Amino acid sequence: MSQRIDKPALIRYLRDQFCLDWQGIHGIRYWSRVRYNGLLMARENDASVHVVELFAFFHDARRFNDHRDPEHGIRGAELAWQLKDRLFEATDHEMALLTEACHEHSNGLIEADITVQTCFDADRLDLARVGIMPNPFYLCTDQAKSTSMLMPAIERSIRLKVY
Ligand SMILES: [Fe+2]
Fold this sequence. Notes:
The protein is an all-alpha fold. It has a single domain, classed as Orthogonal Bundle (Hypothetical protein af1432), CATH 1.10.3210. About 55% of the residues lie in helices and about 0% in strands. It has helices at about 5-15, 30-45, 50-60, 70-85, 90-105, 115-125, 140-145, 145-160. The protein is globular, with a radius of gyration of 14 Å. The two termini are about 15 Å apart. The chain binds fe (ii) ion. Fe (ii) ion binds near residues 59, 72, 73 and 105.
C-alpha cells in the first residue's frame, strides 16, 4: 500500500493525542474498517487510495467525545495539515480532497468528488457498530450501495473486525 505515509510514526502520534478510548467505537479498530471499506471501493471507482487512507486516519482523530461533536472533522483536517510533510506527503489536490472529506463527513452530504464520496461511504458503511443500519439512500457511490459491498461491511462492523 502507500509508501507515502510513515504509518508507525503516524499511528503513534495519533494515539498519543487521542482523547477517547483508543480501542473504542471511534478508535483505531474502527479506523481500520473505514480504511478497509475505502480501499475496497477505490479498487473499483478510481478514488484516490492515498486520500482514502489518510481520511481513515484523520477524520475522527480529534474527536473530543463519542457523541455530538460537530467540529471534530474540522479539527481532524487541521491536524492533517500540521502533520503533512512530517509524517506523510500529499499533493495540494490530495489535501483539498482530504480537507473536504474530513470537514463534511458527518454532515450527511452525498454530492462530491468520487474520492470524497468514497471517504463518506467508507465511514457510513460502518454504522452498524453503533446499531445504525447504513441506509443506501444516504450512501454516495454505486460501490457502497451494492449488496456485495454493503452486506459484508455491515457484517464486519457488527463483528468489530480489525484490519
Ligand atoms: Fe466522524
